[in-house]
Amino acid sequence: MFASDWVSFFKQSKKNIFGIIICVSLFLAGFLIHGNTGLYVNLSGFLIIIGGTLGATFLSYNTTRIKILFKVLKTSYGRAIKSPNEIVSILVDLSVKKRLQGLLALQDDEDETAIVFLRQALGLLVDGFSKEQIRESLTSEMYFFKMRREETRRVLQTMADVAPSFGLVGSVVGLIGMLAGQGDSAIIMSTIPVALTSTLYGIVLANFIFLPFAANIRERTLQELFLQKIVLEGVLAISEDLHPKMMERKLVSFLTPSARRGRFVSYEKIRQRLNLSEEVRENI
Fold first, then answer.
1. DSSP character at residue 266
2. Beta strands in the chain (DSSP E)
3. Which phi and psi (to 5°) does residue 4 adopt?
4. CA separation for the pair 18, 21 (Å, rounded)
């Protein structure tokens, strides 16, 4: 990831990060308030939960799907997503460029664009496909993108479902040890933490790790699908030679009222980039 990506990601997520730090601190304070943190640490129970949950996951899904899960999580938490108004601005700029320099001029932007979906859409546009073909291709891409993300999210959902169950397994193991050690207080005291902490670990992992990760993937997917929808409508408008100002008005309808302030057609930036004269700029 480039330094600019980290800066953008931090700016977008700093409120979330700050909130997470506060909530985690409060959560841990509940365990530490009585001072004896050793009561909540039990390696045997932790191994039962981790081993059982991962074992069930590997039995349910192939390793390729699990690798994809880690890649999606890395992208979701480590790469900033463009805002809708940035996408609208990019599309309107491209529309102006096409009107001034022609369709083939968009080939340069095809490689410069950081968004894969927009790059694919521009490729279809430059290759001369019809409006219907572009819509069908991009709609299929959106559909299967959603399906792939949903399949990845189900891995975390499965882990969240089985983790509490293996917590109960750990509790049963502890109870068996207690029954086997009747009359021996040392054995009983060593097995009680296994019985209690295993259930605790299972519930915490399911509700504090796996389910939030799954919810994050779902939220990220919805955001990306929303951006893809804007790209789809924008590229179709470009293929119809819709005037940039009308295209802007159409795409702005996707945005919230607070994001609609200002103009997205950056005439000055386009003039400088394309070395346009003032007379040409006024005729855009």
1. -
2. none
3. -65, -35
4. 5
Q: Which domain holds residue 99?
A: 41-282
Of 10, 51, 264, which is closest to residue 159 (Cα–Cα)?
A: 51
- Asked if pLDDT for residue 10 goes beyond 70, the answer is no
pTM, to two decimals? 0.77
Domains of the chain: total: 2
pLDDT in tens, 102-111: 777 777 776 6
222 and 148 share a domain? yes
**What would the two tokens of residue 76 be?**
């979701």
Q: Which of 10, 25, 40 is the last residue of a domain?
A: 40
Query: Are 159 and 24 contained in the same domain?
Result: no
* 64 and 5 fall within a common domain: no
For 155-196, the pLDDT digits (tens) are 999 999 999 999 888 878 777 766 666 666 666 666 666 677
**Are 160 and 118 contained in the same domain?**
yes
Task: Calculate the CA 195 to chain-centre distance.
Answer: 36
Q: How far is CA 277 from CA 17, 25, 93, in A?
A: 46, 58, 17
pLDDT given at position 145: 94
